[in-house]
Design brief:
The chain is mainly α and 79 residues long. Helix content is 81%, strand content 0%. It is globular, with a radius of gyration of 12 Å. 11% of the residues are buried. The mean pLDDT is 85. The structure holds zinc ion (ZN). Zinc ion binds next to helix 1 and helix 3.
Length: 79
C-alpha cells in the first residue's frame, strides 16, 4: 500500500466502512509514513469536531475540500 492507496481509503475511513484487513494495511503504512499520519490526524480531528457539534456526518462540501487538500498534500510530498 502506498500514499495514493491511503488517500483512496480515507473516504471509506470517514464513514467507518473500511474493511478491517485494509485498515490494518493502512495503519501499517501510516506507522512508517509521517505524511499519511498527519493526513489521518487532520481527518480524525475534523470527524471529532463534527461529532462534538452533534453532526453525525461531515458535510459533503467540507468533506470534498478536506479530501482534496489531503490528496494534494500527499502528492506534493511524493514529488
Ligand atoms: Zn503515505
Amino acid at each position: 500500500m502506498n500514499c495514493e492507496d491511503i488517500v483512496k481509503c480515507l473516504s471509506d475511513y470517514i464513514d467507518g466502512d473500511l474493511p478491517i484487513e485494509i485498515l490494518e494495511q493502512a495503519e501499517k503504512h501510516m506507522a512508517a509514513c509521517p505524511n499519511c499520519t498527519t493526513a489521518l490526524h487532520t481527518l480524525q480531528e475534523t470527524i471529532e469536531a463534527y461529532r462534538i457539534s452533534g453532526k453525525a456526518r461531515i458535510a459533503p462540501e467540507h468533506r470534498a475540500s478536506l479530501l482534496s487538500a489531503i490528496h494534494e498534500a500527499v502528492q506534493h510530498h511524493q514529488d
